[in-house]
From TrEMBL:
InterPro entries for this protein: DUF4360
Keyword Electron transport: no
Domain of life, source organism: Bacteria
Keyword tags: Signal
Extent of the signal sequence: 1-25
Protein name from the UniProt record: DUF4360 domain-containing protein
Keyword Signal: yes
Species: Cryptosporangium minutisporangium
UniProt lineage: Bacteria, Bacillati, Actinomycetota, Actinomycetes, Cryptosporangiales
Amino acid sequence: MLGRLGIAVLSVLGVMLTSVEPVTAQVRTVDPPDGHFGMSAVSVRGTGCPVGTTSVIANSDKTAFTVTYSNYTAQNGGGVALFQARAQCVIGVSVSVPQGFTFGIKSTTFRGYADLAAGATGTLDTQYWFVGQPMTGRIQREYRGPFQDNWQATDEVPISAVQWMPCRANYPLNINSQLIVRAGSVNPNTTSLMTMDATDSQITTLYGVTWRAC
């Protein structure tokens, strides 16, 4: 039997436990703050982003930023050189945010075009992370032939999984992406391709952002 003291202690512990919020609930997002939000590509390398074919722009309303590519293609089959089956792009992005605030990526949308013969596959594989933090934000999609159309891949990130740029320093953001095309065995002599280009005047990739105070 519990004495009065034991019951009292348990009661206090119960109040303490029920009053503690989960870590995810402690994240308080805010509206986009006043001040400058800027992004620019400071390093670009890879077969998917030759010099002058890639740009990074922060939206004026501070709710997103866009990355555009104009020469990002992987292709395989039909005598195409094997090295063309994989295209990659690694971008280092300089970031500027309003003082006292930080941001994280809450959603991503990728667009492109694919022409895949029967048996062929096209794969999108992307990651993003702030310098000094673990690689997160990995997104993978696979499209199977026959497929001849525009494609779009969208990913929503729960607030508990958002990776925030560390406060008190504008840490660079790394964006790593690749396209891989496999010819398959059904029509290996037919060229298949996959692009991540804004060929239809739409934005190639869109990263939605969310804000919180430091």
